[in-house]
Amino acid sequence: MNASGGTGSGLTPVPGATSAGAVLQLVRSGITTRSDLARHTGMARSTVSQRVDALIRMGLVVETGDGPSTGGRPPTRLAFNPDGGVVVAADFGATHCRLAIADRTGKLLVEHADELDIGIGPDIAVEWAMERVEKLMARVARPLAAIDGVGVGLPGPVEYAAGRVVNPPIMPGWDRVAVPPLFHAHLPNAAVLVDNDVNMMALGEYWHSWRDTVDDMLFVKIGTGIGCGIIARRGILHGAQGAAGDLGHVQIPDALDALCTCGNRGCVEAVAGGGAVSAALRAEGHDVHDARDVVALARAGDPGALNALRTSGRLLGEVLAGAVNFFNPSVIVVGGDLADGHEQLIAGVREFVYRRSTALATRNLHIVHSRLGADAGVVGCAVTAIEAVLSADAVDARLARSEATRGATA
Ligand SMILES: [Zn+2]
Predict the structure, then answer these.
(1) pTM summary value
(2) Residue 52: which H helix or E strand, with range?
(3) For the chain, how big is the Rg over CA atoms in Å?
(4) Cα 288 to ligand 1 centroid, rounded to whole Å
(5) Ligand 1 centroid from CA 320, angstroms
(6) Could you give the CA distance from residue 370 to residue 333 in angstroms, rounded to a whole number?
């Protein structure tokens, strides 16, 4: 699947930008001639050419022949080169892992999904992933050295800047573990970025479907529990400690004193999450064990399951109505096993949000299903790695290192 969607990278051009890394962002955003780059940055043509030459040497930009003629000599078009390095996407869930190799546009070249219990701990989990990454790289006929970024999604709270897991409820052995060094042992030169799995899904969905039209978006994952990734001004909002978007543990009146897995009472997750809904249906005599069983039962037309999904959507809508008033997103994307392709749950969400949020906040609000489904997380992991590898700062730092090496060997 190609996750790159529409044209360019969706990045906003930076007027007055001067570094080679900044020029790369302009080329990725669709400015494709040296004269347009000069006009856009205010730099001299000769300076622009120096920057472009450096990007061509680094394999980040290629010349693609002649652009439209304006009377004189036709200008040579520039294009971002997607065929340089590749990135690894590693999306870990509680009981499974999806791995992929992606090119620099976010296109997934090869994928692997398998059962994996996250409880085996970080060392074995990373070894397990790297064994499979080596096989995937063999399938695309590239050496491990071609990997210049790794994006890792984990099913627990992550301190984003340090790539460190903090107090994860379902990840024994991972608490306080910094994940990047575990990957650096195999890939010393790769940038390694780690984030919560819901943030990765939010970014994947945003990149794939919404980045050309929307700046502010919420992605709600409703599986066993409930989580939320916040896209604010086109990027993930992590909050001060990386804990932003913990929607599942917001208290609602309709949860009464239902006991939540977090130890508190009244959390929306304790009544509307897949764990709570399947438990309630089991108590009524249904043979269901998780969110997927509930959806399967609803698809079979069981009135109890259909009603349970609608109610779950309404309860989730209670919290989201407040979030809409507070954050004013353009889009709410609902994903996760309990929302999987079924209209009842999302109808319940819409019913409550449109009734309870302010008219201005809901005037242009869309509430939609996830389009990427199970691929959202792995696409988000790839995008996170690509944006780190291709950021202006990262490109300028690589350029400075290679110039130093050229100077030393000259
Ligand atoms: Zn809770």
Answers:
(1) 0.89
(2) helix 45-57
(3) 23
(4) 22
(5) 16
(6) 6
